[in-house]
Amino acid sequence: MTNQVRIALAHDYGVSLMSGDDGERLHHIIAEELKRGNTVAIDFQNVAILLSAFLNPAIGALYREFTPEDLNKQLVFENYSTVQSRTISDVLANAKDHIFEDKGDRARQEALKEMFPE
Questions:
Q1: Measured between alpha carbons, how far is 86 from 79 in angstroms, rounded to an integer?
Q2: Alpha carbons 2 and 90: distance in angstroms, whole number
Q3: Above 70 in pLDDT, residue 102?
Q4: CA 55: distance to chain centroid?
Q5: Do 83 and 66 touch, CB atoms closer than 8 A?
Q6: d(CA 86, CA 45)
Q7: How confident is the model over 45-57, as pLDDT tens digits?
Q8: pLDDT digit string (tens) for 9-22?
Q9: Closest among 76, 86, 26 to 50, alpha carbons compared
Q10: Domain count, the chain
């Protein structure tokens, strides 16, 4: 049986998410829960500042360990603003460009597009 784990970013990391070190800490938590088969809901409520320097190691790096299909099923983003949505989309596009460019894996690239349509 899978559980849903909710991570309230503002509560756990503060309202200004700028640190790559914090992003790496978040990455380890998310990765462990995903490996257990749990769904992870990342809640952006009350986050005032969101930088890609935080999201790249936190979320983008997940694509090195998990397939986009698995992430689409197990990773949920909640309560994000329009501006935050763009930052998230940019991070996912960056992950696609850097992680999958040598693999030429179109199915994975399409899964990223489905997760965050432009």
A1: 13
A2: 29
A3: no
A4: 7
A5: no
A6: 16
A7: 999 999 999 999 9
A8: 999 999 999 999 99
A9: 86
A10: 1
